[in-house]
Design a protein that fits this description.
Layout: E1 2-13, E2 18-20, E3 23-25, E4 30-31, H1 39-51, H2 57-60, H3 73-86, E5 89-99, H4 109-120, E6 127-132, H5 138-141, E7 145-156
Parallel strand pairs: 5-6
Antiparallel strand pairs: 1-4, 1-7, 2-3, 5-7
Length: 157
């Protein structure tokens, strides 16, 4: 068994949808990025890559490559799962936290889990999502961006 840890953060901007866990969350701001900037999917993907010693998201999907412009991070997560499987691993569970002052995210967790769990090959009960604020401190607390952390456990197949 191996453990991987992932982190991602993106700036909030006008004119983009807010995509988290593959779900469009109603909000007046979205996340800036080359892809859809889904910090939750990116953190989980980075954790998976770390667990199987396969680098990080930026090495696999560089932001200078036009092929990834506005791509769904769920597609990137599917590609990461191909790497995980090629190294003869499978996820056992995921625990992730989204750091955002707003909007309220917990009501959207069931939809996020419904999108992410099948890609990861996990039963929904093995994918845990949490949300927290920073009590108005830092970039997330000031509403300038959103971050996510993820920890995954993988096992040999």
């Amino acid at each position: 068994m191996r453990v991987g840890m992932g982190y991602d953060a993106h700036r909030l901007v006008a004119g983009r949808p807010l995509i988290l866990g593959g779900v469009e969350v109603p909000y007046h701001l979205g996340l800036a990025g080359h892809s859809d900037a889904d910090v939750l999917a990116h953190a989980i993907g980075d954790a998976l890559l770390g667990a199987v010693a396969a680098g990080d998201l930026g090495r696999h999907f560089p932001d200078r490559d036009p092929a990834y412009k506005n791509i769904s991070s769920l597609i990137l997560l599917e590609k990461i799962m191909e790497v995980v499987k090629a190294k003869n691993f499978r996820p056992v569970n995921v625990d992730a936290v989204i750091v955002a002052e707003a909007p309220r995210l917990v009501p959207h967790f069931p939809a996020m889990i419904a999108k992410l769990a099948p890609i990861l090959g996990l039963p929904p009960d093995d994918l845990n999502l949490k949300a927290t604020t920073t009590e108005k401190m830092g970039f997330a607390g000031k509403g300038e961006g959103i971050a996510a952390y993820a920890v995954v456990l993988v096992d040999k197949t």
